[in-house]
Each structure stands twice: as C-alpha cells, then as structure tokens.
C-alpha cells in the first residue's frame, strides 16, 4: 500500500465570500485509490456563534461533477462539525458517501458563512491510500495565493458509517421502508419534523434519536440532517421499532434553512440568491416534494431570501415558545393575511439528547406536531400538505387544540384545519385540552375576534361567524408559564380554516 499526500493552502478575501460563498479546491486522485482522508484548518476560528473570526464549512465532490442541482459527484458535507473525514469504497465518515474512488479530479468545497474583514487562510491536507502495484504519481493541485501561515491542524474523531453508495443516493434507489402499521385510518398522530444526528452536527446516533422518540410515544419522526442524506439508509433499516420514520434533509444555505421530507434524493443547498433558491423550489415541485421554511426569526438563523410565496410549510414553532417564536408567528400570520396558504408546523431542532452532553434546555418533540392522517409516511405527508395540523408545546403536557367547521349546518362539523368553507355564515367548533386557567384566542385575518377564559381542562367551544370578506379563521391556546410577569406563552395553535 502506498500513501500519497498533498497540502492545499490559500487565502480567500472577505469580498470573495460576499460574491460567491463557495470556494472549490481541486486535487487529483490516481487509479487504484482505496481511501481518501481529508483534514483541514483555517485562521482565526470563531469560538462562539456569530462571534468575531472565521467559519468555514467543508464538503467534497468526485470527478462526476458538481453542477448545481444535479451534482452527480456529490460525496458529502459536514459543515464545521468535523475537522477531518475519510471515504473508502465500503465505509465513510458520517455525512459522507461510501463507494468507488474514481480516478481523476476531485474537489473540496469550502463554504464561507462568515469571514473576518481581512479574509481567511485555509490549509487542507489530502491523503490517498493507493494499492501496491499501481503507479500512483504525486497528488497534484492547482496553485493558490498563499498568505500568512495557517494555525495548527486540529482534529475531531471521525465517526465511520456504512452509508449507501453514491449511485443509490443520487438515483433514489434506497431500499423502500416497511411502514410501521397501526390499525385505523385518519386519526391524530404526533411527531417531530426536525432533528439532527451524528450525520451532521448532532451528537447522537440515529438509533438513539429514534429510540427516544419511541419512548416519548411519538407516532412519527423526521430526521433532517444538514445538507446530507446519509442517515436515510439507517432509517430504512429500523423496521423493528413502532414508529413511522420519515427521511428528510435540512437544506442549509447561508441565507436561511428549509426542510424537505420524504424525498430520497439529495437536495442541493448551494443557493446564494433568489434565482438559485427558486430553482431548488422548482426542482422539488417537479418531484412533488414539500419545502418548509425553518425558524424564520432573529435567532433562526433568519430567512433572508426575498419573497415567501411557493413554500408549502413554515416552521412557526421551533424549540420552546420563548425562543423568539412570536417573530415566526407574526411572519406566518402576515403571509396568511396576504392569502398565502402556508401550513404551520413545529420542530424541536434537537441536536443532542442523553447520553450526549446537552446543547440546549429542551428535548425531542418540544414542540410536537399533530397530524390527522393515515398511519403511513405518505399519509402523514399528504395531511401536512393539506394543513390538517396543529402544534402543542410537548407530547405529554395535555395541551390539545383542533378547529372544525359545520358548513352545511347538519351538526357534523365535517371540515377541519386546512379545509375551505364558503363565504357565508358558518358554525365552528374548537376542541381544547389542557385549557384550565388559560385563554382561547379566536383569530381571523390577523385580528383576535374573541379571547375566552377557560375554567375546565377539557372544553368544546362553538361559535358562528359570517365568513363573507374574510380569508381564514384559526385558534390559539395561551397562558402563563412560570412567573406571570413574563407574560403568556402559546401552549397550542391550529392551522386555519380557509374561505374558498
């Protein structure tokens, strides 16, 4: 076995990151390669989020190409969560795709979310193992301008996985999941639509996250690692657990994050302007996949792309309510007032649970998304698309809230959240659990129509409303949590019933 190493160094000026936040560093892989190992460091590393200094993400493409959207050569991404990674034919670091080590021009991609005013000096070391008997020549690279010397190379342990090969990931040929079957169709199912594992910047294995979801009694869980789908194969193999597992990806751009669910293909995240994010949107629409804007608030990171139209969903509630979710609620309700039928969903965005060290004070399913659906992946996604959804602070604290309409006056209340009613006088019903000592808000077109003090844990509130000239009706359950001086929080909220 021979081992060939090259060191790729260079300086990226700050203004370069503003014009294009992705920088590509090519190197050549000889025939007969059996392992590629990459380690990198860079100058003035920021030590706290949004603090002074530099942040550089990393990923890699093989010789098959890096074209936007198609990118057949995509072989993985780890953001800033790993300082080194490796790929072989049979295994790869989490977030990276095992498979053939094609000879030819590979490219490291450096993402540039944050650069100091005088730029950044990077240092990438690529080591390739080559089978004996194959003439391997030195690894080569293109010259780059070299600035001041980089800091010492730092290392994190490499987590190795048996992820799917690149052809399967790009073609969507992963083994089909065997759905966890539950009796009955059309019932309330509870779950979490946003969490992370070791395949991106989470601290837990996929199985740890899934087993925790089962222990909480969740009916479904979407795992949405950043800019990679190497976790999908592990999800597909967990047919032994009584939960519906939905493969997802958090499309993590430098101008906002968004989730996709149920798609087995990798979704390109290299969006830096309105044209590129719209191209991703069209790409997903062609595959009948959903696109959900995440944590659109100041601590999100926020959603900075122009326009809100054309997105199926919005994560209106991420983490506990006081984590600035009122900002997301205001933006969502403004979109509703403009007539944009965007479905509100929740997601914990959990990155660690025990036994991993805590990264935040909340856990999985805080908040919880409730969906009225058949007990299949397809049924859950179809119900979310239809807006048959409400959100609560957790799966266990007893808060429930659903909104129904009796358009025909027959007492059946056959319409629910996400459905439409005619612009006439309509009878509504709100079913509320966990409401004692809290207040039920009835809201239409951004204006509270009534705020009702609740004195019992379980209540059913009926009201009649002329829907002529209105766009929608929705409901919220609000109340104190902790000291009353801190004000009320939202304990549960519904999606709207629309006017046709």
Describe the fold and architecture:
By secondary structure, this protein is mainly beta. The protein folds into 3 domains: 2-170, Jelly Rolls (Sandwich), CATH 2.60.120.380; 174-397, Metal-dependent hydrolases (TIM Barrel, Alpha-Beta Barrel); 398-500, Sandwich (Immunoglobulin-like). The protein contains 7 helices and 29 strands. It has a 15-stranded mixed beta sheet that branches. Strands 1-9-3-6 form a 4-stranded antiparallel beta sheet. It has a 4-stranded antiparallel beta sheet with strand order 2-8-4-5, with no helix packed on it. The protein is elongated. It starts with a strand and ends with a strand. The model is unreliable at 140-159 and 168-184 (pLDDT under 50).
Give a quick summary of the entry.
With about 500 residues, the chain is mainly β. It has helices at about 15-20, 165-170, 205-215, 230-235, 275-285, 325-335, 375-385; strands at about 1-10, 20-30, 35-40, 55-60, 75-80, 85-90, 90-95, 105-115, 120-130, 160, 185-190, 220-225, 245-255, 255-260, 290-295, 315-320, 345, 370-375, 390, 400-405, 415, 420, 425-435, 440-445, 445-455, 460-465, 470-480, 490-495, 495-500.
